């Protein structure tokens, strides 16, 4: 995978250096993504949705968790609206709910038009609806590497969630090509993704055991 960013850390792989490298990388890729013009963001988001729909047609009949887009992340809401309108048996759109900073995420059913309110991080969250375990997680990424590791915002919510959910859901990263890097400098707690979908295609990784 051709990386967009290369950062060096000490040969000893010092934890402090790794944290600095991850923080620097996060800032760089966020800056690049937030610099996308609205028409670029819209076109790339549409391509991500089309790629996801083509590569994973079975999702229209599964419990799918996605994230409300923030900071110019790919917008999956048009695709979720299409899947909801299709009304296939078994389909359920879920949004994550942060119950506490050090706990895994919970997931609440949501349909377009239903009420949302900002959570402690300012992200729109359903105010009602049944709780359910997802079969698929569509996880936003700030960066991802050739090994399938993802760099998020640093809260560790999806890592904790993937580590504790049984059976483990299919974990698909959602991002733009500008998020491709050589390494995110993974830590021991980082959980590998099964695949990543960007505007240019699907990047699959070895099955997570």
Structural features, described:
This is 5-formyltetrahydrofolate cyclo-ligase. Keywords: ATP-binding, Magnesium, Metal-binding, Nucleotide-binding. Its EC number is 6.3.3.2. InterPro entries: FTHF_cligase (IPR002698), FTHF_cligase-like_sf (IPR024185), NagB/RpiA_transferase-like (IPR037171). This protein is 27% helix and 20% strand. The chain has four helices and eleven strands. It has helices spanning 15-34, 38-55, 77-86, 157-164; strands at 63-65, 92-97, 106-109, 116-118, 124-126, 136-140, 143-144, 150-151, 170-174, 195-198, 201-204. The chain is globular, with a radius of gyration of 17 Å.
How would you briefly describe this protein structure?
By secondary structure, this protein is an alpha/beta fold. The chain has helices at about 15-35, 40-55, 75-85, 155-165; strands at about 65, 90-95, 105-110, 115-120, 125, 135-140, 145, 150, 170-175, 195-200, 200-205.
Query: How helical, in percent, are the residues?
Result: 25-40%
The CATH class is identified as Alpha Beta
What's the Cα radius of gyration?
17 Å
Structural category is: alpha/beta
H/E element sequence: HHEHEEEEEEEHEEE
Q: Low-confidence stretches at least 5 residues in length (pLDDT < 50)? A: 1-14
| CATH topology name | Rossmann fold
Total strand count, please? 11
The CATH architecture name reads 3-Layer(aba) Sandwich
- Could you tell me how far the N terminus lies from the C terminus, measured between alpha carbons in angstroms? 23 Å
The gross shape turns out to be: globular
CATH homologous group name: NagB/RpiA/CoA transferase-like
- The figure for the number of domains is 1
Tally of individual helices = 4
**Main sheet makeup:** 7 strands, mixed
Mean pLDDT: 91
Oligomer: single chain
């Amino acid at each position: 995978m051709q990386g967009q960013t290369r950062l060096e850390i000490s040969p000893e792989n010092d934890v402090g250096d790794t944290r600095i490298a991850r923080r620097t990388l996060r800032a760089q890729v966020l800056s690049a993504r937030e610099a996308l013009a609205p028409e670029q963001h819209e076109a790339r988001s549409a391509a991500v949705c089309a790629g996801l729909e083509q590569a994973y047609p079975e999702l229209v009949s599964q419990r799918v968790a996605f994230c409300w887009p923030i900071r110019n992340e790919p917008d999956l809401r048009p695709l979720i609206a299409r899947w909801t309108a299709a009304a296939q048996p078994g389909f359920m759109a879920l949004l994550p709910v942060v119950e506490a900073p050090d706990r895994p995420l919970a997931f609440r059913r949501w349909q377009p038009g239903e009420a949302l309110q900002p959570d402690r991080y300012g992200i729109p969250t359903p105010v009602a609806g049944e709780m359910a375990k997802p079969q698929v997680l569509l996880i936003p990424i700030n960066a991802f590497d050739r090994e399938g590791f993802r760099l998020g915002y640093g809260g560790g919510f999806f890592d904790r969630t993937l580590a504790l959910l049984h059976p483990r859901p299919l974990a698909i990263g959602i991002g733009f090509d500008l998020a491709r890097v050589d390494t995110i400098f993974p830590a021991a707690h980082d959980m590998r993704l099964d695949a990543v979908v960007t505007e240019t295609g699907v990047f699959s990784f070895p099955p997570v055991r």
